[in-house]
Amino acid sequence: MSRPPVALALTLVALGGIASAAQGAVNAELGQRVGNASLGAVVNNLGGCLLVLVGLLALPSMRTGLVALRRSRLPWWTYLGGLGGAAIVVFAAYAVPVLGVAVFTIAQVAGGSLGGLASDRAGLAPVGRLPLTVPRLAGALLGVAAVALAQAGQPVGDLAVGLLLLAVAGGVAVALQAALNGRISAAGSAAAGVAVNFVVSTPVVLLVAALAGAFTGPSIRWPDGWHLYTGGLLGVGIVASLVVGVRAAGVLRTGLALVGGQLAGALLLDVLLPQGPGARLPVLAGALLTLLAVLVAGRGPRTRATAPEVDISVAAEGPPEPDGRLVP
């Protein structure tokens, strides 16, 4: 899989962020209308798995990518990226009702920035090991500030330290998800990376929904409205954009571009939805500040690995060493 131009890759990620904002609205509405929030995530993941199945039948690149992935002999832990997506769903279910959306989102982005810096520094993503520079640190801080600005005026819940740390951990999990899925896609194909993500995350989401009682009690009355069932389609697009972005620009800048797209998507939803609050200046300012964060994080000498890109087709059984090599 060739590496796309950075500008194109980050544009695709920003579009994935817009899709993420729409996905969140769709899943939340579906969960509210069926009376169980976890069912929105279930429909989302099952829809994604159905699309993956269609892809296996229709896309040669997915089949050949999975064959190449099997031959690459990657270590087992590289296949666990999908757990990051499942983790943020679970953590949000517990933390958002207490912290409020604003505080949870800021904490999640802070964790994502921390996880992005660490993943790039360790060389987990296929772009290789990226140095911890002042511009990258400044970009990460600007990203958190942008989200904090966008959430200005939103209600704040109880600042429970344990749940706040859980939200930060969720952001770290999402950064690791992007890094590992990107690594899978580099060994096979972007389509193979998407397939592995949904195969890994869906059983966890189903288990959480079962523990939450989603499949017990009165029979579920599914609402009308085709748009309520598009979460899986949007999810496939989001994961695909992330694996492309991570391969070209690393985890940190990909995460910042995703956040910028999410803020732009939230702004569009506020304007376009009949019951939306209309354009909110803090959200617009946050989206623009996130764009600045992406640019700042990419400044300095041409961002590149400190060693040649890791050949992940070589057998490996452990995590990267500090110098970016794989432990045999």
Automatic annotation (TrEMBL):
The chain crosses the membrane at residues 37-62, 74-95, 101-118, 130-153, 159-180, 192-214, 226-244, 256-273, 279-298. Residues 1-21 form the signal peptide. It comes from the Bacteria. Residues 308-328 are annotated as: Disordered. Keywords: Membrane, Signal, Transmembrane, Transmembrane helix. PANTHER family: INNER MEMBRANE PROTEIN YDCZ. This is Transporter family-2 protein. It comes from Micromonospora andamanensis. The lineage of its organism: Bacteria, Bacillati, Actinomycetota, Actinomycetes, Micromonosporales.
